[in-house]
């Protein structure tokens, strides 16, 4: 028979594992069409701009559907919201695999709505059910898994399409949603059985009253050993808006490059379709380094210093591809690590700024909603500029500006965060 200590340790690991499986579904479906976009365009007669919508639509949903996601989470439990997000992603994946332009776009929108719910609720779950000393590393694991999902689909979609066609290659990733749904259902039931509701083994913030605009407040965190006073910096309007623009710069750059790196490498270096997809996966998988490295740095550095470093490394990607595309591997390593670190440090800042679940939900929704609204323009702007100019100079310059917004505005917004 398991002792109480063994059950607590087991419960401490089961949630991160489930979050990893859930996160695999929150970026992979977005990038899945990129390696086979040429086949999709040829079969369905899509223009370059419309093809860019396949990446733009989900990101636009992240912005426009965020109020809906926040409402769903407030009305339902976070556990049910996670389950709902996986079901919606699975439905959208099936619809998108139907070989018609309308189904492709509708399914993509459905996937975007499902991911939006997950985007907002997972940081809330991490903050609520993870001890304060582990929040950073669990957040890093979550953002790492987002990029592992992107890498997996970038690597696997083209080879599967060569065997069975692009509709099957896109639909097959729905298996991830099924696996994650089963794992999440088990996790919710197991943790409730092991620890019971509101267990002292799980960090639970005490409510802190006061307006969201208060600059400095003192909160408390209840742990298994009792209340511990901690300093909580409350988000001002300007900090929240600054983080929103920083998140927008991160999202614009990431999705613009994710959508068009395979095509860029084909045009500039002559890679085949399969090789371009495999090469672009480097940009995705190196994000794991940044996502796991940032929590380590966060234990010693202030967030503004981390954002400055992330912004500097990010610049290597557009500048490198602009002036020396043959060194794409080096630029993908630096840029990939930076993009994984960028989203992680912003999530960590949000967790440090809020002191209760409602504030976490609202701030997560605001920053992600506004940021993704800006980021949704990335793929379509890059595609339109490439179509208009016939080369990749203008798209990469736009990405460069977005990266500067992340680094400069993000550093200014985080200057008072401990």
Structure description:
It is built from 18 helices and 3 strands. With 418 residues, the chain is mainly α. It has a single domain, classed as MFS general substrate transporter like domains (Growth Hormone, Chain: A), CATH 1.20.1250.20. A hairpin with a 2-residue loop joins strand 2 and strand 3. The longest helix has 33 residues. The protein is globular, with a radius of gyration of 21 Å. 57% of the residues are buried.
Termini separation comes to: 43 Å
Overall radius of gyration: 21 Å
- CATH H-level homologous superfamily name: MFS general substrate transporter like domains
Structural class: mainly alpha
Using the coordinates above, name the CATH class: Mainly Alpha
Please give the largest β-sheet: 3 strands, antiparallel
Stretches with pLDDT under 50, minimum 5 residues: 198-233
Major beta sheet, strand line-up: 1-2-3
Instruction: Return the CATH architecture.
Output: Up-down Bundle
């Amino acid at each position: 028979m398991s002792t109480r200590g063994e059950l607590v340790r087991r419960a401490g690991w089961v949630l991160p594992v489930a979050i990893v499986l859930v996160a695999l579904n929150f970026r992979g479906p977005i990038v899945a069409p990129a390696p086979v976009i040429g086949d999709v365009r040829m079969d369905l007669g899509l223009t370059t701009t419309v093809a860019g919508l396949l990446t733009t639509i989900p990101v636009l949903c992240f912005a426009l559907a965020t109020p809906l996601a926040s409402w769903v989470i407030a009305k339902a439990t976070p556990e049910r919201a996670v389950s709902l997000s996986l079901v919606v992603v699975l439905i959208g994946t099936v619809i998108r695999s139907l070989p018609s332009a309308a189904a492709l776009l509708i399914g993509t929108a459905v996937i975007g709505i499902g991911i939006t719910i997950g985007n907002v609720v997972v940081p809330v779950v991490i903050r609520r059910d993870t001890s304060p000393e582990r929040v950073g590393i669990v957040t890093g694991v979550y953002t790492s898994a987002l990029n592992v999902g992107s890498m997996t689909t970038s690597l696997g979609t083209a080879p599967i399409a060569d065997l069975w066609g692009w509709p099957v290659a896109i639909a097959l990733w729905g298996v991830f949603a099924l696996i994650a749904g089963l794992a999440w259902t088990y996790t919710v039931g197991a943790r409730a059985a092991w620890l019971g509701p509101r267990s002292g083994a799980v960090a639970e913030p005490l409510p802190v009253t006061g307006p969201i605009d208060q600059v400095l407040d003192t909160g408390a965190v209840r742990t298994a050993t009792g209340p511990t006073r901690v300093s909580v910096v409350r988000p001002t309007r300007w900090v929240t808006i600054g983080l929103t623009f920083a998140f927008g710069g991160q999202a614009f750059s990431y999705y613009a490059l994710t959508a068009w790196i395979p095509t860029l490498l084909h045009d500039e270096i002559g890679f085949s379709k399969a090789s371009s997809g495999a090469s672009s996966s480097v940009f995705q998988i190196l994000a794991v380094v940044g996502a796991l490295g940032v929590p380590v740095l966060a234990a010693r550095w202030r967030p503004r210093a981390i954002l400055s470093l992330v912004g500097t490394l990010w610049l290597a990607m557009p500048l490198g591809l602009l002036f020396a595309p043959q060194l794409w591997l080096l630029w993908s390593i630096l840029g990939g690590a930076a993009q994984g670190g960028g989203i992680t440090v912003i999530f960590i800042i949000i967790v440090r700024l809020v002191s209760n679940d409602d504030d976490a939900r609202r701030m997560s929704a605001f920053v992600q909603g506004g940021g993704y609204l800006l980021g949704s323009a990335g793929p379509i702007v890059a595609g339109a500029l490439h179509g208009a100019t016939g080369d990749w100079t203008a798209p990469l310059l736009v990405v460069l500006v977005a990266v500067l917004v992340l680094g400069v505005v993000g550093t200014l917004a985080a200057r008072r965060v401990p």
